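Input.
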Amino acid sequence: MAERDVTGDALGDAVGPAGSVVLEDRAGVAVLRVEGALDLALAPKLRQLAERATRSRPALLVIDLTDVTFLASAGMAELVRAHRGQTAAAPLRVVASGRITLRPLELTRLTDELAIYPSLSEALAR
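Output.
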């Protein structure tokens, strides 16, 4: 039986009406694939799964925004939290390209702080 959070969702993934976050283990690298709108509704799930991922002490944490359709300030705040906060035990890499995800990160100058990669394969390369 899968572990469940307080809302009853399985802890390995989080699916909401506007998006989802899926946690994958790729040879010691934790990959969080985000799909849909990364907004106030989905951001807490990203935080929860990022914290869960780092408890397993991965060599690297990758947050893949390839399938994100909207990046709100709440989502960007979670990226910063993952970079600076409790989850900072593992280096963070963010996959973002295009106007939907990369442009907001550029406008807020988070590209100066976060390690941004154009594709998941490039983020996984060591």
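The radius of gyration is 13 Å.
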